[in-house]
Amino acid sequence: MSKRLLIVDDEPNLLRAVAAVLRDGGFDVTTARNGREALVLVAQSAPDLIVSDVRMPGMDGFALARRLRAAPNYALIPIIFLTAKDEIEDRVEGFQSGVDAYLTKPFEPDELVAIIKNILQRVERTHSTIARLVGSEMPEETVFVRDEALTEAEWRVAESVARGLSNKEIALELNLSIRTVENHVSRILAKKNFSNRVEIARYIISQKTE
């Protein structure tokens, strides 16, 4: 399955050019013209990675990054900033906002593709490591005591989170839409007063029967 990218830029020509390069690179690409439009698209279906301009009207890249990092469902989405100025102040503010990488315009398309692939591979390795570590504590015959505060559907999603699966992988495994999985994760976080998926995983492991 192709990785889904969201490209955010208020310059139509650059937006089309970057989208074309990334589609040629084998990615499934969606575009937005500013941070507000990007947030709407993320809420509809979270991408695997976001490439965003920094300076945009309405909501700039810094504000977009801060909003995403404050949302448990979207806090781990990698973000790459494209900037016309290689200024240290912008870079510092970007990294403080939670950005993963910076690329200064003009840039080589191959470099952008390489950075994206490197970040996505790092994310995959992280998911694999979590799954392996959690799996070592959860043999196949493990039985859990279900928390009555969670619905059956929420519990199944929580167990999948504990196995290190992404929302997309959970959706495929449980035959749900990604949006439904995101809603379940949000409700689990709210009901249990958790701040992230790691806390969900730890909680599920703690519910093992002896």
Automatic annotation (TrEMBL):
Annotated InterPro entries: CheY-like_superfamily (IPR011006), Sig_transdc_resp-reg_C-effctor (IPR016032), Sig_transdc_resp-reg_receiver (IPR001789), Tscrpt_reg_LuxR_C (IPR000792), WalR-like (IPR039420), WH-like_DNA-bd_sf (IPR036388)
Stretches assigned to the Response regulatory domain: 4-120
4-aspartylphosphate modification, residue list: D53
Pfam families for the chain: GerE, Response_reg
Keyword Phosphoprotein: yes
Domain HTH luxR-type: residue ranges: 143-208
Signal peptide location: none
Listed GO biological process terms: phosphorelay signal transduction system; regulation of DNA-templated transcription
Molecular functions per Gene Ontology: DNA binding
Keyword field: DNA-binding, Phosphoprotein
Protein name per Swiss-Prot or TrEMBL: Two-component transcriptional response regulator, LuxR family
Organism from which the protein derives: uncultured Pyrinomonadaceae bacterium
